[in-house]
Structure formats: structure tokens, C-alpha cells
């Protein structure tokens, strides 16, 4: 078969042929597959015979997917919300096959809603375009009636045009709200039944104190399902989208600086590693630690963290875990959060740099920063990359998070062993058994496998090659009332707590003093919204003043250096705990960030 052939030009019939499909795992890369597009449903298999035999791999309704096409590279990206497919033309296919495919897809889609061609800014080629089709669940109810008129789709199409800018809004880089967003929230407030007016009668059990720390937040999370993200963007068409502020109701009362410290929840795995003589076994524990940092994702897809302001700091002293952690927002554009934790058993540091890739219905968060861990007992310095986090169905309440990709852990001070971990991309949506699967191997210098482990990032990791095969990590049980408290674990609930013992020791730049976040935590959403605008305005004023004076912001506790591989990284300058001790932050000059 020399590519896809259209059987009938007027009424699209069956369209089939070979295409190359991108695969993440196993055997990452482009693979030749036989595709059939039949009545708007796209299926594929290895060969035509397999299709006939019913060995079909996916059945994707193209009318519900967002398609972006790059004619130059002959590539199509199909985002169905739950799944993301990348295909391109086979070397064997003829040039205009892509045109045929697009025509066919357009034909099917147009029965549901009109389609428009727009350019995708994430694509360098001018020739690339994107067809957009909304499904009902992603469409804010208010606009449903408008959906029938072409203009709305036009506008959404325009919205996709600015894919990069919008994605930045997830991390909310720079915001100002001149756009009457409050109108959006109020005019569109149609709270879903059942979630509203949750009374704050906490049962006694959940009120019980753990470690003397709070086990509930002062107020329940408020339902934000009525906030149509698409509506917000729709109402801001024509404006500079990077300046569209998202309503605070989309936020959880934690900042990204606090969020990153959650990766240390299972730090006891590093304590074990620092007492494990066998380097290969030690690696198994370091690997389990790197996986444990992803466990929060099954509970946290309804809210997003606050984007820290430049110069904001956060400390987290965990005597029970034996470590202390500091973080600082060191850059605003691009947003960069640096952090450092130390204990008798390890040091941990990283700076968070990430890029967003927007595919129409899903956002992929690609982190480029490396995580570093040193273990003093053995002089090890481990370094690893992060997996990709994907927010599927970002505009809908059926939003879900997935991690995928390979992580490689290296010991920079000794190359006798390395570890490869694969976060398996789910191949069949809804297959609960293979959900969130993780597999890993510890290899020696010669590439021989010495340990094997596996499991999932939400349920735990088992290693059967250890002297006694065992579960090496399991997430803590989630409190029963998690839904009422932003999906927070017990650990997360403690992060923003302002206990009397630290109140006078913290620098005023600490996230715990951020007033809008505190108001949100107290359930005062409207006031929080107002305060957030003021804080963001103050940040802009400060930047303007600095630019005028020709000055540049200098982070207080972190410095920029170059790592062993020539990458730019932010590391601690070692002053935080010294200043805290003597003379104390009350007697130093501090940035004034809040209002
Ligand atoms: C529209 C909103 C309400 C949907 C929710 C978005 C949430 C799930 C998004 C917004 C910002 C995202 C975070 C941004 C940056 C990072 C750093 C990276 O190294 C790991 C993933 C992590 C920590 C992301 C996890 C997912 C995240 C928290």
C-alpha cells in the first residue's frame, strides 16, 4: 500500500494505509503502523491482516480530538484528551496523503461543529495548522448555545493560536487583571450539585492531632468546577493572554515552593540508602525515592499552586524526618524555583525549570532541571532527570494527571552502577491494571541487570531481587476527607501551618506570610482574589523601579553556577540558616513583598 487512499471522494468511506506512529515505551521512536479511518474512528494495528483479525490498538473518535498538522514535517498530532497520538507520513507514502487525511478528518468533524484553520505558534512552520473541535464537556455551559454559531469556535481557534502563552498561565507568570474576570466567575457561576456549601463540620477523628501538627485546614476547599477555563480565555480574546489572571478559586493554598518540598515526604528512603553498604541495593532505595516524589498526582488535579513572587522564600524544618529545607523564587521570567534540603543522611537540591507543550486538550509539563542527592556515608552524588507530567483534559472536570518517560539515575562520583526507570505511558485508557506503571533496573558498569523493581507511582514499588524480596515503598494512606481539603495528604496540610515556634524566626518573605494564600486557606476566596491582584501589581511596580535604576534582582540565598555538564544551576549560598541563627531575620533588611 503506497499510503492512505481515499476510496470515495465525496462521502468519505474507509481510508487506510501505513503511517509512522510515535511511541514512548517500549522501543521509543517512530514505528510503522497500519491505520484505518472508518466513519470518523481511527484504528491502527501492525498490519492490515491484524486489523482484519481484530487485533486493533486504539479506536479514537477523531471528531472529539484536537488535530494539529505540520505540513512541512508531514506530521499530525491528535489530542483526544485522554490520549495523545503523534503520527507522520511513512517514507513510502505520497506527498498529498496528509491532505487526504485532513480532508477526511474535517469531513467527519464538521458534522459536529465547524472547524477552522489556525496557525499553531508552537510550530515553527507557517504551513502548519490546527483544526479545533470542542466537545461538550469542555465547553462552559454558558457558551453552549453560542457553540452553534461559528464565531465561538473561531475564538477558541484563535485561542489555540496562542498555545504557549496560555500554557504559561498554568504557572501564571505575569498577571494583571484588567479584563473583568470577576464577571466571568460570577456570570458563569453555576455550581455543580452536591459540591456546594460543604458544611465545615469536621469529624473528631480527622481533627486528631498528628505530631502535634494540624490535621485539617481552617476551611474546606471551595468547589471550582463552575469556572470554565475556556470561558476565561474566550472572554480575553484579543488581549495579551500572558496578562490574564486566573481567578484564585483555581488555586490551592500552597505555593510552588511548598509544592516542591512535597518531593521529600518519603525522605526516609534516603536515610535507608545512606545506611546500605551494597551500592546496587543503595541505588534501589534512591530510585524508590525518586518515584515517591510523584505520588501526589492521583489526588491533585483540581487546583493549581500559587506562582511564587520573585524573592519569595519558604523553609520547612522537619525534625521528625531529620531534614531542613529552604526554597527561593530566583527568577520570574522564566519562573525558576531553587531549593535545598539537608540532613545527617543526605543533601537534596534542584532548580525547577519546565516547559509546557500544549496539544489542544492536554498539557505536557517537561522539566529540564536535574535533581541532585548526595549521601555522606558513601560519598555518592546522584543526579537524575524528571519524568514528563501530562494534564489530560485540562479544560474539563475529568482532568487527570499522568507521568511518563525515562529517568536515568547516575552516581557522578562512581560509575559502577546506574539505574533506569520507565514511567510507562498508558496504552489503553481505562485499563486499571496497567495504570501508572513504573519499571526499573539497576545496572552495573557492563550493563548487566543486578536489580529489578516495579509497581506504580500511586500504589508502591516492589523489588524481588533484594536478599528478601519486599515492597520498598508505599504511599501513606490518604486521609478520608481529602476531597474537602484540596486532595491534600497529611504532609501537605502541614506545609502552610504557621506554628508559634517559628513565627518570629521566619523571614517576612516566607510563603506562610503571603496574605492572599492565607485568605484562601481561610476560605475567603473573594478577599483573596483582591489581595492577589494587589500583590501582583506590587511585584510589577518593584520590577519597573529596578529597571529604571538599571538594577537587576539578586536572589538572596541561592547563586547561579555551572554544573559538571555545563548546565546553569542554582545552588544554595549557605547563608539562610546562619542568618536565621544570628542575627535573626528580624534584624536584617528584607524584601517587602506583601500588601
Ligand atoms: C487548570 C488547573 C486547575 C489544573 C491543575 C494544574 C496542575 C495539576 C499543574 C499546574 C502547575 C503544575 C506543576 C508545574 C511544575 C512542576 C515541576 C515539575 O518538575 C513537576 C511537575 C510540576 C510540579 C507540575 C505539576 C502539575 C501542576 C501542579
TrEMBL record:
GO biological process: bile acid biosynthetic process
Keywords: Cell membrane, Cytoplasm, Endoplasmic reticulum, Lipid transport, Lipid-binding, Membrane, Phosphoprotein, Transport
Subcellular location: Cell membrane; Cytoplasm, Cytosol; Endoplasmic reticulum membrane
Chief location: membrane
Residue ranges of domain Pleckstrin homology in the record: 17-88
Biased composition (Polar residues): 171-189
A GO molecular-function annotation: cholesterol binding
Protein name as it appears in the record: Oxysterol-binding protein
